Amino acid sequence: MTTPPLFPVRAPSSITRRSFIAGTASFAAAVLLSTRSFGQVTARPKFSAYPFTLGVASGDPLPDGVVLWTRLAPQPLAVGGGMSPDSVEVSWQIADDEAMTRIVHSGTAVANASWAHSVHVEVEGLRPDRWYWYRFKAGTEISPVGRTRTAPAAGVPAERLRFAFASCQHYETGLYTAYDHLAREDIDLVVHLGDYIYEGAAIPDRVRRHNSGEIIHLDDYRARYALYKSDPSLQKAHAIAPWIVTWDDHEVVNNYTGDISGKPSTTADFLLRRAAGYQAYFEHMPLRRSAQPHGPDALLYRNLSYGQLVQFHVLDTRQYRTDQPQGDGNKPPSPVLMDPKGTALGDKQRDWLFTGLERSPATWNILAQQIMMARADKTRGPEVTYSMDQWPGYEYERRRVLRHLHDKKIKNPVVITGDIHTNWANELIADFDQLDSQSVATEFVGTSISSGGDGSATTKNIDLLYSENPFVKYFNAERGYVRCEVTPKTWRSDYRTVPYISRPGAPLQTHRSFIVESGRPLLLPA
Ligand code: FE
Ligand code: CA
Fold first, then answer.
1. Domain 17-149 sits in which CATH superfamily?
2. Which-ligand-closest: CA of 168?
3. How many A from CA of 250 to the centre of ligand 1?
4. Of 525, 517, 378, 339, whose CA–CA distance to 459 is shortest?
5. Cα-only R_g, the chain
6. In the chain, where the domains are located
7. β-strands 41-42, 87-95: how paired?
8. What's the whole-model pTM score?
């Protein structure tokens, strides 16, 4: 569409009032971001430039609602985003047509200055399993239109879910060409598995350049998100469908675990940094208020359902994790890896996951998480090396998870993974010391959007990789994302890759596809 029609001319205060008066069938509550004081709230802000520079987004779809997100930032890289210290009233509309002529709900929210003038609207009262379009207005400025979709009603035997999952989008190492392609996919939602930003200092002679030194404080994290979210390809990908997001390490700092990173070296100082990272993440993601951080704590793990077809178990394998065992390459079951106190999930999240899996009515149970669960030996030589930052570093708990999937006969567990900037398709076998043991789940590891720069379709000694790890059915080191189509009978994963990202215009191809049949956790060639 071209110029969007103007909002009805009405003072924002009267919009608020009307919304509350209308509170019957057609009214959807705009749940404000925070119950804390907004300070001064301006209803008629003046901006130094267009304020919707970071685009719009939606997320965490339910059968009757979705989160709508934007942030006001006329000068995105400036401290404060170029906004005055006042909070700002923002109105929103959601329609069932792209031209925004049939508005089904509208309301106002506050872009709270203490939350970087971000807006999180939890729209309710929508109808299940359909497309909607939305936009925001602040002062006289109107945002781009985004498209979103509600989930099918709980218990409905939905016929199909199409989604894509992505991760690891280092800004400096390449262009977001993969997101240009993803934005053209016919998909209902996007899952992002972390490393949405990278915390490192600008490094010269790369494809693009970070805006600052290493980020430590809240304003640094905010500016880094603003840099990343200024990318038009990323904005397009957010505008086509709701996203379900979780974080990995680089949203705070490389390979941190729990309250440990080694930088800053004291726990108290690190927790300040973690709080800054978590706050900026929330400010820039379409998350519900339930995920709003309180200091260094934020509840990010959660369930989302797609009718009876799919349940997403979205995990946080960073916040509650014990430190990586010392010394890469420990061969399980060395005592350090079999320490029952070692955990990637933490006791509470693991209990929640186990209970959620047992109670799930879904045909497919998706563990949307960060680190590779298959225990692959990556040396391709006589010695054996497992990455201690991945699930094999938490071998005791890894075995508990796989045993739970097996013993409780969890229906069709599928693990989707990010983190390692390479594509893998793995069968998760019951016992990785018995390579002929039965498979209890499948794992699709998606490569990076851009981290690692131009990739390659294969790697040296690829035959050794496959022969030493027969449960690994596919490896690829190009950039891209994974597109999935889920039906009651089958799961299909398409590894969508681009051959380069150091210059624009790379074409997309489906490099490999796999099918999983319901009831048989095996990777079949498509
Ligand atoms: Fe990464
Ligand atoms: Ca990572």
1. Purple acid phosphatase-like, N-terminal (2.60.40.380)
2. 1
3. 7
4. 378
5. 23
6. 17-149, 161-525
7. parallel
8. 0.92
